[in-house]
Every structure is written in C-alpha cells, then in structure tokens.
Write a sequence for this structure.
C-alpha cells in the first residue's frame, strides 16, 4: 500500500508542477500582451499627433505662400498735403469712325 501512495503523490506533484508552469506561461503571455498594447498606443498617439501637426503646417503654408494665398489688393497712396495731383493727359486726336461693311 505504501508504494501506491507514493506513486499517487508523485503524480499529484507532477500535475501541480505542470499547472504552475502553465499558469506562469499564461501570466507571462498576458503581461507581454499588455506591454505591447501600451507600446502600440503610445506609438499611435505620437504618429497621430505628428500627423495633425503636419496637416496644420501644410494648410498654413498653402494659405500663406501657396496658391491659396490671397491676391494682393492695390492700395492708393495718400498724396502729400500741399501738392495737387496732375491730371492725366487726354488724347487730342479724334478717333476714326468705323466704316460700314457691305
């Protein structure tokens, strides 16, 4: 009877070691998964932030220097006081009348 009891204890000890090994492996796997998710989230946040900054910079450059920039409007320069502007010369030659076409 004593021999059978020893075999049973060995089997139980072996099963306990196997359960412990599997438990440790599962725990290690899940911890690795959590670290990977944290790393992936950090990388995604950095890339997303850089993308938003890049889009903002591109829009700013487009609207300030690119084809989206507004055309400069002509501005009138004020005349200094005491001076009168000279009138533009007028044409003295009459324009010819168009001839009728047949």
């Amino acid at each position: 009877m004593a021999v059978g009891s020893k075999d049973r204890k060995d089997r139980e000890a072996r099963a306990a070691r196997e359960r412990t090994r599997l438990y440790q492996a599962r725990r290690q796997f899940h911890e690795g998964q959590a670290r990977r998710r944290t790393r992936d989230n950090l990388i995604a946040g950095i890339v997303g932030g850089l993308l938003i900054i890049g889009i903002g910079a591109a829009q700013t450059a487009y609207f300030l220097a690119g084809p989206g920039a507004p055309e400069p409007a002509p501005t009138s320069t004020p005349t200094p006081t005491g001076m009168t502007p000279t009138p533009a010369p007028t044409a003295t030659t009459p324009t010819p009348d168009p001839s009728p076409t047949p």
Notes: The CA atoms of residues 30 and 36 lie 10 Å apart. The chain has a mean pLDDT of 85. The helical segments are 2-64.
